[in-house]
């Protein structure tokens, strides 16, 4: 555990030291769970957003984009259920005065049981070797069966209690499991209470005329209220999708784990409108398609798993998370929800406007069902960044820090380095930059010995370093060094664009889907 914590601390400090992420308004001691993306972070974030947009919007003829405003008419949030039901169940510890999410305390407890089961399974795998059958072991070993069935029982009971609003039972569950304050060990708990997560604000100049608004807690509602506008003007035929990326705001009480749980964050969401009755087919389709998008980045299949929801949100008839193995364990990265016709019907009811689709095949109107895919851009950033940050021991015993980002997402694709700051080498390097910058984000670096410059670019995740030396002046060739293997090749300047493109093009990476 200590090792995991160290790893995570390393991620946070590397992100700051190398200009990826800073605490917000740091000169005033920061603002809890709010962060700013710095010069390299903003490039990485933009590249993740573009990778998603290409795959979801531009590669699908039947999906279009939208950029709806953050501020929306307040009735939107009444209709969507967020005013009444977008709550977290909170519990306070009377001794430590610390506030926790009751469901998170219970989920963490259940996760520990799961880890115990996994440990037993791994021990057995080592013992039995190649003949080990994990499924059989899970259903026959009494200890593993007990851990897993207890985990299931706890999560099911919590799901039922939260679903029916029985907060007393949620507290009973915490007491029965003897869950203690993770920081102090105290079990002196208050009752569980609901807390609405939306940030309120006001529109208007004077106090009397001001209108109460909310900062949107999800981008999805901007899509629902524009459903008919887009369908009509785009002549879209069901099934079709509307996608958007943008800021969302939640007054998270338990804000922790760096950019994993923020108060201001960015979502990349797509609502797919389908014929009622076909939603399960599309739900399965999007689960598979979204997982494949993640896998195309090459962070390792073992780092992803599906988690089917026991406790469904007020709008869903099926829901699953794609969980990622973050430095603090498996947690939600993306949600895939079958949202039924809940949202469109609710907006019809509250607005008095019809939000229906005319099916020319059956000559009838219906309210489409919706399958949603929703991934946090900041969580994607954390997943990619934390997994890519590695410490390596080299053959000569020295260590290097390397950020093995998928090169399609790397902030800078190549750094051009003159071997020395004289003899016309900087001028040649600048000429290479002038040519490459039309196609790629490239950097120039002439400070320090070339070895140190290589290390600096490794830590920034730059896939290529191009070194201009005296031979360049004679034959127009340079050395190109590959970040991951550190191998160096001598190549013609005129080939650089193609070499870099082969490695970093969105096309080549998305082809792996
Ligand atoms: N429209 C559906 C929706 O908003 P959600 O599961 O609440 O569903 C979707 O959020 C995704 O947004 C999550 O899977 C996560 O990646 C991201 N997300 C949610 N809350 C977040 C927060 N406080 N900080 C960072 N990302 C968050």
UniProtKB/TrEMBL annotation:
Enzyme class per UniProt: ligase
Domain Aminoacyl-transfer RNA synthetases class-II family profile: 177-418
GO biological process, one term: diadenosine tetraphosphate biosynthetic process
Subcellular location: Cytoplasm
Enzyme Commission identifier(s): 6.1.1.14
Matches recorded under InterPro entries: aa-tRNA-synt_IIb, aa-tRNA-synth_II, aa-tRNA-synth_II/BPL/LPL, Anticodon-bd, Anticodon-bd_dom_sf, Gly-tRNA_synthase/POLG2, Gly_tRNA_ligase_bac, GlyRS-like_core
Residues the entry annotates as binding substrate: 101, 218, 265-269, 372-376
Sites where the protein binds ATP: 250-252, 260-265, 332-333, 376-379
Molecular function terms, GO-annotated: ATP binding; bis(5'-nucleosyl)-tetraphosphatase (asymmetrical) activity; glycine-tRNA ligase activity
Keyword set includes ATP-binding: yes
Positions of transmembrane segments: none
GO CC terms of this entry: cytoplasm; extracellular exosome; microvesicle
Pfam family, one: HGTP_anticodon
Keyword annotations: Aminoacyl-tRNA synthetase, ATP-binding, Cytoplasm, Ligase, Nucleotide-binding, Protein biosynthesis
Domain of life: Bacteria
Described function: Catalyzes the attachment of glycine to tRNA(Gly).
Description of how the protein assembles with itself and partners: Homodimer.
Protein name: Glycine--tRNA ligase
Record organism: Flavobacterium sangjuense
